Each structure stands twice: as C-alpha cells, then as structure tokens.
Amino acid sequence: MKIAFFDTKPYDIPAFRKYGADYGIDFKFYETKLNTDTVELAKGFDGVCAFVNDTVNAEVIDRLYDTGVNVLALRCAGFNNVDMKHAFGRLHVLRVPAYSPYAVAEHTMALLLTSVRRIHKAYIRSRDFNFSLSGLTGFDLYGKTVGVIGTGRIGKVFIDICKGFGMKVLAYDKFPDKGIEADGNVKYTELDELFAKSDIISLHCPLTEETYHMIDENALKKCKKGIVILNTSRGALVDAEALLAGIKSRKVGAACLDVYEEESDLFFEDNSGHILEDDTLARLISMPNVIVSSHQAFLTEEALENIAETTVKNLSEFFEKGQCSNELCFRTDETVDCKNGKCF
Ligand code: NAD
C-alpha cells in the first residue's frame, strides 16, 4: 500500500520506514503540508498521513474523495484541523489516541520549572560568565495550587507529577473521572472556582467550539494576580491577545506556551532568517516571563516510536478489514472513537 506522508520532518522518517517495512506500507515523504494547494500530490496513493498543522478542510476532503483516496491516518491525537462533519461519509479518519502522555506532561512540568526558577535566564547568564543572582528569585511549587483543565491521559499524568511536588490540585473536566479524587489530593471544581483559587493553570483538554479561547479576558479577570498559565494542549484554547494584555498589566505572572493559536505557518520550521509578521507572538516572546516552545511536548524517542507503530498498525488494520478501532466517527454534535467497526 502506498501512503502520501505530508509535513515530513527528518525525525519522522526512521520509525515510519521501519514499521512500514514490517507491515508492507510504503510511505512517500513530502516536506510540504497538506492543504488545498498540495492535495493533488495524494493522487494515485491509497491513503494520506497528516499531522497537527496540515489543513484537512472541506475542499481538501472533497478533492481527496474525487481522487479516490478514502483514508486519512492522523499521526497525532488531536483532530481539530480536520473538518469532521464534512469528512463523515467521505473519508475514514484514523488517529493515534495515545502515544506518550508522559512526554507531554513531563514537558509541561519542564516549562513550569524553567519559568518559576528562571532557568532560561540563568542558562544564558552563566554562558556569558555572568554569575549574578539578581532577578532570579523564584517560588516553591510545594504547597501551591495547580488548576488542571482536562483530566484525560495527559492531565492525569501531569496531576501525578504535581502531587509529587506536594502541590494541591484542583481539576475541571466536562466528564470528570471521580476516581482521581480518592487520595484526597485532587478536587474537582467548577471552572470559576478553579480560576479563582489556582496559582498555576494547566490546559489538557481538546480544542473544540466549546473550549475555544477558554482562557480569555473574562477568565483572566477571575484569576489570582500573578497566575501562571501553561498551555501544552492547543493554541486556540488561549486568546493570545488577552494573554498579552494580562502580561502587560502584570495580572499574569508567567506563561509557558508549547502551542499558539496561529502556529501553523511558523512552528516546526526555522524562521530565524525571516521577519516575524505576527506582532502578538513577537511581543509574547519578548517578555521575560513568557517561554515559548515550538509544539515540542510530544517529541521524545518513545513517543515517535509509538506514533509510527500505531499509525502503521491503524493503516494495516484498515486495509485488511475495511475498518479500524482507532477510527474517528462524527455523530450529531461530537466526534468519538469508533470502537464498533465500520463508521460509514
Ligand atoms: P484525552 O482525550 O485523554 O483527555 C482530554 C480530556 O479533556 C478528557 O478527559 C475530556 O473529558 C476533557 N474535555 C473534553 N472537553 C472538555 C471541555 N469542554 N472542558 C474540559 N475538559 C474537556 O486527551 P489527552 O491525550 O490527554 O490530550 C489532551 C490534549 O493534549 C489533546 O487534545 C491535544 O490537543 C494535546 N496534545 C498536545 C501535544 C503536544 O505536543 N503539545 C501532544 C499530544 C496531545
């Protein structure tokens, strides 16, 4: 089977070649992203493989359908870049529901520690033999309250890490898993209470119409002064303009962003020789209390192996049986994993 693989990075290739050879799947690696300009490259293939910043809108779906491509294998968990309503009945959408929640949760804590202990400043100073400590005062995480929004796979691992630091955890989820309250260190609350009582807020829910800009001007107003915002989930969960205003007004004490709402044309690429057109991102990056990483949280050896293995197994299962247990289905107002066989 031949699969057109979009938005290829050098670190993708070894594991996909290895698992592809094991399962008889031949990948054609394109550096370009999948979008309306590049969709023709999928012609003649049995399927396409896409990542978080490929654009799978209605036009791309229709053109894939017209060229006879009926399966899209996402090599990620999130699917906010796919028009699921339009895909239903035209395109089978497979995904990797979990590959390493530890990768993302550990990166979130790495960002938090870097920020609150000013490691990003200390690293640059000591490389210049500047051993002054002025301005590097941090604060203990022990005893602080962290608000975790989204207590799925990644949120739960992040909660465990926070508990290890002796932090108190407030949690919010549309579908709470009450079991995590058992040891008395985690308490589910309403969003407003989480905003009002947290010293740090970490986002681990998907981007949907409901969660779009859940951290906006109104939410920030409800937070404590000095709130630290962590976003390793999806950029548009945070209204970047409102965050910037919160930082300028000193309401927001720090922000750690692995994702950004307008990241798709910038992240994963070397833009160091270009003039950055996005003034909001440029201003955020210029702030001493903002750390931006480039959608890097997933990037561990373990995660890359798991992503390649699951993606290849998803495709192999689909080609063999015409269905896949990791297929996404669109039903009325929500998208769900299809566990019961053929989705359409
Ligand atoms: P998951 O599906 O296991 O958990 C998501 C949780 O969010 C679930 O418990 C769900 O009930 C909850 N949720 C859904 N709608 C909600 C709402 N409106 N309000 C509050 N909670 C809501 O997903 P996961 O594997 O833990 O991943 C979480 C997110 O992390 C993904 O959606 C993805 O966007 C992001 N992610 C980022 C990276 C990265 O590299 N930065 C990598 C993987 C995943």
Written overview of the protein:
- The chain is an alpha/beta fold and 344 residues long.
- Helices cover 33% and strands 17% of the residues.
- It has helices at residues 13-23, 58-66, 84-87, 101-116, 119-127, 153-164, 191-197, 217-222, 240-248, 279-286, 301-321, and strands at 2-5, 26-29, 47-50, 71-74, 92-94, 145-149, 168-172, 186-188, 200-203, 227-231, 252-257, 290-292, 327-331, 334-338.
- The strands form 2 sheets. The protein has a 7-stranded mixed beta sheet with strand order 2-1-3-4-5-13-14. A 7-stranded parallel beta sheet has the order 8-7-6-9-10-11-12, sandwiched between helices.
- The protein is globular and about 60 Å long.
- The chain starts with a strand and ends in a 6-residue tail after the last strand.
- The structure holds nicotinamide-adenine-dinucleotide.
- Nicotinamide-adenine-dinucleotide binds at residues 77-78, 98, 101, 104, 149-155, 172-175, 204-206, 210-211, 232-234, 258-259, 295, 297-298.
Give the helix/strand layout.
Blueprint: E1 2-5, H1 13-23, E2 26-29, E3 47-50, H2 58-66, E4 71-74, H3 84-87, E5 92-94, H4 101-116, H5 119-127, E6 145-149, H6 153-164, E7 168-172, E8 186-188, H7 191-197, E9 200-203, H8 217-222, E10 227-231, H9 240-248, E11 252-257, H10 279-286, E12 290-292, H11 301-321, E13 327-331, E14 334-338
Parallel strand pairs: 1-2, 1-3, 3-4, 4-5, 6-7, 6-9, 7-8, 9-10, 10-11, 11-12
Antiparallel strand pairs: 5-13, 13-14
Bound molecules: nicotinamide-adenine-dinucleotide.
